[in-house]
């Protein structure tokens, strides 16, 4: 792993309900890596992502940035969360609009973001006219329009059909390499985590902490050939075993 761009140091997070989501989590995110947080539902993966995004504050511990300040982030949520009354162009404009950047001044960035996700011809379409995969592409473009150094993705493809999901997996890998971003991806899919990642951190059941780290030594350019390889199958078995172990402990 390259030098950490951000580190979560002994981070615990509890909520008003009394739920302890994370317990003394230690997590480094290396600059330029594709890091996946893998674990069962409710284990604190999304909470960790929101702590990195500064959408939550830790109850104890610290989120330390190497540069001393948080760089530009893009966040893609589980649902596209598009404004139904606005067309694709205006949905992507939203984060720039909140920074008081006019529609005219934002146009070039928005068109570039649309091109990156393959939706240049859909700028005037409305969310109701789009498929689930296209809506998620709009959400991705909205995150990319900020030109983020770090892209955070919280199970963005979980509700999509398998073919669309595989295509978007490839698109995210292409975008990471093309834009040279650091990516932190949350999923509970073993197969998705192994295909996408340079490193996987497997979380325990709640309260979450990292119980195993798996470095994926595979070609930077992932293809269907990798999915059919023995190495891919071996990594999937290892990740599955780690998940089964944490679930067994949770129910013991």
Report what the structure shows.
The protein is α/β, with parallel strands linked by helices and 252 residues long. The protein has a domain of 143 residues: Rossmann fold (3-Layer(aba) Sandwich), CATH 3.40.50.300. The chain contains eight helices and nine strands. The strands form two sheets. The chain has a six-stranded mixed β-sheet with strand order 5-6-7-3-8-9, with helices on both faces. A hairpin with a 6-residue loop joins β8 and β9. The two termini are 34 Å apart.
Rg, Å, rounded: 18 Å
Summed over residues and divided by their number, the pLDDT gives a mean of: 93
The CATH topology of the domain at 1-71 and 181-252 is given as Rossmann fold
Task: Return the CATH architecture of the domain at 1-71 and 181-252.
Answer: 3-Layer(aba) Sandwich
- Please state the overall shape, judged from the principal axes of the Cα atoms: globular
Count helical runs. Answer: 8
- Percent helix among the residues? 25-40%
Largest sheet: 6 strands, mixed
CATH class of the domain at 1-71 and 181-252: Alpha Beta
Kindly estimate the percentage of residues that lie in beta strands according to DSSP.
Answer: 15-25%
Query: Helix and strand succession?
Result: EEEHEEHHHEHEHEEHH
Specify the CATH homologous superfamily of the domain at 1-71 and 181-252.
P-loop containing nucleotide triphosphate hydrolases
What structural class do you assign from the helix and strand content? alpha/beta
Strand order of the largest sheet: 5-6-7-3-8-9
Contiguous low-pLDDT stretches (5 residues minimum) are none
Give the termini separation: 34 Å
Total strand segments: 9
């Amino acid at each position: 792993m390259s030098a950490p761009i951000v580190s979560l140091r002994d981070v615990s997070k509890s909520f008003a309900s009394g739920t302890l989501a994370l317990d003394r989590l230690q997590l480094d995110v290396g600059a330029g890596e594709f890091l996946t947080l893998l674990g069962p539902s409710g284990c604190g993966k999304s909470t960790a992502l929101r702590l990195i995004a500064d959408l939550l504050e830790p109850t104890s511990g610290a989120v330390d940035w190497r540069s001393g300040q948080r760089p530009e982030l893009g966040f893609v949520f589980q649902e596209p969360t598009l404004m139904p009354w606005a067309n694709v162009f205006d949905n992507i404009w939203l984060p720039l609009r909140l920074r008081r950047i006019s529609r005219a001044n934002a146009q070039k960035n928005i068109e570039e973001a649309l091109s990156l996700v393959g939706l240049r011809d859909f700028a005037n379409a409305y969310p109701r006219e789009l498929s689930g995969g296209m809506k998620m592409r709009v959400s991705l473009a909205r995150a990319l329009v900020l030109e983020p150094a770090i892209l955070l993705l919280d199970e963005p493809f979980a509700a999509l059909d398998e073919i669309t999901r595989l295509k978007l997996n490839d698109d995210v890998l292409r975008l990471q390499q093309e834009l040279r971003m650091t990516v932190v991806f949350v999923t509970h899919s073993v197969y998705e985590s192994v295909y996408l990642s340079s490193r996987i951190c497997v979380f325990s059941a709640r309260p979450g902490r990292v119980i195993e780290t798996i470095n994926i030594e595979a070609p930077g350019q992932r293809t269907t050939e990798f999915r059919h390889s023995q190495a891919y199958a071996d990594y999937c078995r290892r990740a599955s075993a780690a998940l089964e172990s944490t679930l067994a402990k949770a129910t013991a």
